[in-house]
Amino acid sequence: MLKRIIALGIVAALSCLPAAAGPKIKIISFTSAWCPLCRVLDPRIEDAMDQFDPAATEKVELDTTSLRGKDIAADSELANALRLTAIHHKVGAVWDWYGDRTGLAVIVAADNGEPLTCLTASLTARQIAARMQESLVLATHVAPGKRRPDGTDCPPPA
């Protein structure tokens, strides 16, 4: 009983601590082992991320390798697991839009999952870094919902 009271006290004390500052932006990468564009895009994203404070950015890979040739709705167990990962990162809508694609990454504001810009293999690491910098400014200094009033440069959802 005493151990339980102590454990509850520790949990209560920890819940009063301020939350650690998390990333400002997340790069949601729709990738797959069989995707040739991913083999170009993924290393460029990594190169660009090396230029930033690791605490400010986070890359989330939604790897659809096992879904190749399958209908996402038909392979519900794996698709649901990927969707739950997306929801955990506040990007359920982004998964709904692009979950059937690869070779694409979406930079979102970490606080609410708001899409800020998209990345494709046509961009260099330098261009990706520039988009990351712009996204960091938007996520840090512009109110949620007003960061991209005219929409992003992302392809239309499928």
Q: CATH superfamily, called what?
A: Glutaredoxin
Instruction: Name the helix and strand elements from N-terminus to C-terminus, one letter apiece.
Output: HEHEHHEEH
Number of strands: 4
| Widest sheet: strand ordering | 2-1-3-4
Global Rg: 18 Å
The domain tally reads 1
Q: Indicate the CATH class.
A: Alpha Beta
Query: How much beta, percentage-wise?
Result: 15-25%
InterPro entries: Thioredoxin-like_sf (IPR036249)
Protein name: Thioredoxin domain-containing protein
Keywords: Signal
Signal peptide: 1-21
Task: Identify the notable features of this structure and list them briefly.
Glutaredoxin; 5 helices; alpha+beta
Quick overview of this protein structure:
The protein is α+β, with helices and mostly antiparallel strands and 158 residues long. It contains five helices and four strands, in the order αβαβααββα. The chain starts with a helix and ends in a 17-residue tail after the last helix.
Structure description:
- Residues 1-21 form the signal peptide.
- By secondary structure, this protein is α+β, with helices and mostly antiparallel strands.
- It has one domain (21-141): Glutaredoxin (3-Layer(aba) Sandwich).
- The protein has five helices and four strands; from the N terminus they run H-E-H-E-H-H-E-E-H.
- It has helices spanning 2-16, 36-49, 76-88, 92-98, 125-141; strands at residues 25-31, 57-63, 104-109, 115-120.
- The radius of gyration is 18 Å and the shape is globular.
- The model is unreliable at 1-20 (pLDDT under 50).
